[in-house]
Amino acid sequence: MIELPDLFHENRIPELTLSLILYIPIGLCLVLIRSVILLLLFVISSIFPKNSSLNQLLNEVISLILTFTYENQTVGNEEKDNRRAAKILVANRVSLFDEIVIQRFICNTNCKVVNLWKENTWITWLKLNTIDSSRTQEDLLDLCCNEIQHSNSQLVFLPECESTTGTDGLLKFNLLPFTLAQKRQLSVLPICLRTSRAFQIRTSVFNSHPFADLFWFLFSPYTKFHINFLPVVSPTDSSSDEVFCEKVRENMCRTMNIEMTQFDVREVDELKKRPDLLQRRHEQRRAEFQQMIQLVHQQVPVASVEAIRYDLETTKNVQKTIANLNERVAAAARAANKSSSSTTTTSTGAMTNSSGGNGHRQTYERLKQELIEKNRQLFLNKNCN
């Protein structure tokens, strides 16, 4: 059962490696260069009046200097039409720059981001197309209705209101975008976001300051955003705002293969007052993960610990990892047998002269096949029991 601390990273860097240590001087140089360019952007945004052209320029330059790369994981050909037609876009929150990433993908100069959280970050100092939350929910709803009706804007919402890992679960959403969709009878376009970086540097950690997140954006060689546009979801007259919201959230969780939690931002605020609970939970998870690695290694001893760890981080399931590793071992054995058979056919004379080495090879292959069969039987017996 997933718990609230599981939705957040505890540490920025999971492991200090030699490659990261060697990269530190380069990273600090990037921090200096990128900081100067960001200061210039701030000066430019302060001088010129706020408009769509300035917003597009800022988005492009920030994406360029921070080296944002993108992987569009959308399945289907209709997603471009959905992007242009949808008036309300909803995404999970994973980093400080989600707004810029989505606006850049939408390619609409009249796209605005609605901030649903109270605290102001440094990004609000730049004159980007945003609607802040310094008003009541009712006033914000009326303002959004006017934006859609009179200026034909596309509105982007990040209703989680807190940056999470994007790989474990979703917080409960703020209802405002779904109330807006029901009121105006508009479809909602869900967007799934996930990030990755070199050296496994996390884009956000629990209760981190925005300037700390910014520093690691400046330090990292690149930040890759994995983005997935889902099919639009339309409201129905019979469903309430809560039901419509949960339907969209369920679709996103199913696509991202994560849990649909019942935690909300108020519980996150309470957790911030007890950081010891987060530390204790992550210590427990590390111990559980180590036990999972040992269990898999007992069942598949030929697999390396690194391979087991990598697969478990993806599947989060011991049985799936055992099945995956056994399949890889079997595939490697089949490839080795095929290569051995091909070599035997093309060079029979050479194989005859090295019968001693061939005997060792056959013994090795026989032992490998026996080990694979033994692991398969153990796995089947465990599942049957």
TrEMBL record:
GO terms for biological process: ERAD pathway. Coiled coil: none annotated. The keyword Transmembrane applies. Residues 334-361 are annotated as: Disordered. Keywords: Membrane, Transmembrane, Transmembrane helix. PANTHER family: ANCIENT UBIQUITOUS PROTEIN, LIPID DROPLET-REGULATING VLDL ASSEMBLY FACTOR AUP1. It is found in: Membrane. Gene3D superfamilies: DNA helicase RuvA subunit, C-terminal domain. It comes from Adineta steineri. Residues 334-355 have a biased composition (Low complexity). It comes from the Eukaryota. GO terms for cellular component: endoplasmic reticulum membrane. SUPFAM superfamilies: Glycerol-3-phosphate (1)-acyltransferase (SSF69593). This is Ancient ubiquitous protein 1-like protein.
